[in-house]
Amino acid sequence: MFRPALEVADIFRDHGPAWRQANAGHVSLGQLKVMSAIERCRTAALGGHVMRCENEKCGHTVIAYNSCRNRHCPKCQGAAAREWLGEREAELLPVPYFHVVFSLPARVADIAYQNKAVIYDILFKASAEAMITIAADPKHLGAQIGILSVLHTWGSALNHHPHVHMIVPGGGISFDGTRWVACRSNFLLSVEVLSCLFRRLVLEKLIVAHQAGQLQFFGNHARLANARAFAAFLAPLWKSDWVVYAKRPFAGPTEVLRYLARYTHRVAISNRRLISIDYRGVTFKWKDYRPRRPRAIQADDARSPRVHPPLPDACSASGLPPHPLLRVPQQPIPRPQHRAHPRAARGAIDPR
To answer: The pTM is what?
Structure first.
């Protein structure tokens, strides 16, 4: 089996102790347990078993150390990921599917860092409600749709970037339950309308959560505990563009599920993406998804634009964003690529 020259475990073992000491008091118990599990995975610390050829002339012996089986370890949970993928593939209908992504703007993502459970829950509910509401509108699809949602809290460069991936069938059940209502071949729902409604739902739910005392603020955001300061903080978001991405997968829904399966049971970065570690930090491959700066996929060498600048030791030693390593709640609910720049669309639901 191919083993990468550099692994996350190597970085943790070499730099983990110093990083934990430098960040004492700022690392959760859960993160410490994950680091420990990855460091010990497939080493003598977890024990192992010996396999020996029964042929007396051969006697070849192999020692295999046990896996940590932590769901964030880049070397474990492969079987669990395949099982999850198989179960999701069995649920697919014989219809076209669409890949939809709802992302939180940077200003909301910033406060989500201190209010993960509340704001991630809002992200799930608002995105699902937006899809279901617009799909039910006779002006759009006029049907009841189903959704598979998976949360990602990071970007390719390991920056904090909360967003929800959805796998959505290209149609739904009519409200009388008698027939299937199909969408157009390469068009599911208006992303402009989805963006407007998603924006309104998120901001309204944030205000309700703030009024209920569910949000906490620290450091530079401490002032947002005041209702008027929080309203002023949200004010620019009512007028900004919220991007919703939607397209029909070129390789079909299975390929999107395979992409999601790689991260439902494993860490945010795989060992294969690591390139080097030196006095500057850790260098790893990444892909820039920003539409204004298209990047071609090139060779995986240090000159490639897919190589992220080295991370400083304090960040690279963690190997992961310091927010919860990965949550993958599933929320099943009874043309070419589109990118929305939500300007109020005629006939759309009022975003305010």
So the answer is: 0.76
